[in-house]
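thread: overnight batch results

M.L. [08:02]
morning all. the overnight job finished for the chain we discussed friday. pasting input first so we're all looking at the same thing
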Amino acid sequence: MASHRGLITGVDLRSHENNLAHRTIEIDQERLIVRRGQQFSITLQCSDSLPPKHHLELVLHLGKKDEVVIKVQKEREDGDKWWFNQLGAQDEILLTLHSPADAIIGNYNLAVLLMSPDGRILEKTEKIGFHLLFNPWCKDDVVYLPDESLLQEYVMNEAGIIFMGDSDYIKSIPWNYGQFEDYVMDICFKVLDNSKDALKNSKTDIEKRFDPVYVGRTITAMVNSNDDNGVLAGRWEEPYSDGVAPYRWTGSVPILQQWSKTGIKEVKYGQCWVFAGVACTVLRCLGIPTRLITNFSSAHDSDGNLLIEFMLNENMETIGRKDSTWNFHCWVESWMKRDDLPKGNDGWQVLDPTPQERSDGEFCCGPCPVTAVKEGYLGVKYDTPFVFAEVNADIIYWMVQPDGKKQKFKVDQSDVGKNISTKSAYGDIREDVTLHYKYPEGSKKEREVYERAGRRFTEPNNRNTETGKLQLSIKHAKPVFGTDFDVIVEVKNEGSKDTNAKLTIVVTAVTYNSLHRGECTRQTSSVTVPAHTTQKEVLRLRYDDYFKCVSEHHLIRVKAFLEVPGENEPIMTKATIPLTMPELLIRVPGKVVVQEQVTAYISFTNPLSVPLKGGVFTVEGAGLLSASEIPVNGDISPGQKVSVKVSFSPMRVGVRKLLVDFDSDRLKDVKGVATVVVRRRQAFPGFN
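M.L. [08:03]
and the structure it wrote out:
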């Protein structure tokens, strides 16, 4: 045990310079946080009475009960072990520690033992704590990413953009990942410590934490609270009164903080972009390059047959749902080598924390190599068939007669998996990554992949001559929520005969994941379409009609059905109309200096013809301020402008994003963002 002579009088972790060299200074300046595969140095202060011929031994401990113990070697024997060297000068010893590029990530405790020549322990230091993270800058680390601009985006950037809406009308919201905010790293390790595997066998779990495949899979299970002590509970329809509505979140940090502070109790509520946003924060914080992906027209194949089947009754209503297509669905991709798989599966891996289907008995998904999805190799782990269907399934529509007979009337082979999007590493713009997931629709290569994936080809029944010459399309302007607008259905007759038909237009409100929220209106009319002409039918949609049923995602779905007498196959087309939100204005005047108070001015005008009740602004920004709410006093009348201000002192320098969300009873999910450049304090005013 430690002697009382005090031979080692102090330890300097050199946190500032180590953290700077390891790119962790944004996380903490006081605590030592380093990345694996990269050396770091600490200094021991010694009394001048060190015995001659003494030597040092270093021992590392991991786990709350020191479940894993690692002896640090004195010299480098091989590349996959911890080793150290020492340099003595006057009353100091400089210790340089070298971690292997596949070291376990986690919270380490280092004990330094001063040994006598005959092997007795003369003194033992109190345990010295530090954290070790993945190192995407180290070429021997399996998460190594050789492009610095991509590392700045996928590891270091705390401000994100999430794409949502519809494949024809893509919109975006800002998201605060905040992976370097105070204590977020500690919460990320807490997430790992509370997984089922960790609670079952802490030692085995810690020993597996060298592997980003294992860590990534654990995180997709732990971000949702199904089956475990996970972070977020999912809910896909109102009411959200016992929690926070998914659309009100503007970042991951308040969610992680609430989970941690309330004794790892699930936070209510998340939907796919919230789950993905939180997973992106945790993965970036731990050092795994990660980006958030949005797949438009995303299929949810519940039975694994790579087909999405919809049954419609004679009123054109969907019945007996099990499969579905979501307007959009978000997941994340993480960059890593897959040493557990055959060659060719390295690079971006899909990880999906939204609880949809079980994988090996757990609600988790991935990591699934994007290349395996593109090539149709469905046997590659993990969850490739499910991800393949999300971007590549066929949709089949069946008409169910009153006697129960089913008839296939439409097959769509190109509607699923559109405009797959992520934020560009080179600015706040959309990067399309669809071709990473599949070959161009209809190409020869795409057909080959379908066959490799074991798909059955699904062809629609042969159309008879008349219906084959009729075409149906839906046109609309870009309507603003709160206004009345027109939907135009065009019937084009390319045949040589005039055609009489029955046209039914059904307008429903849907959620982003296609849950039916009620019918707004329906119109049936007889149309006569002369040969070689186009007939237009106009449906006026009034705010009073759609407000009663519209969901918080402000999506209207229009379906048009054309039935020709004597034909047993209707023609169908559909369109999803996102209602655009009014603008939220944010101003941050003057020069912004770190740790000096600044005021932001936020304003918003009610565009509706009715008052808004219960208005509340939520403001947050990494390095600027933690999430805070500003309620609006009283109702906001039609056309009334409401202004609020928020004062804060920025905590960290650099280009920051201030995120604002506005919600009320009738208008929800109004978002705004302002870029704030935080400067350093000048040491001498007047000098640059």
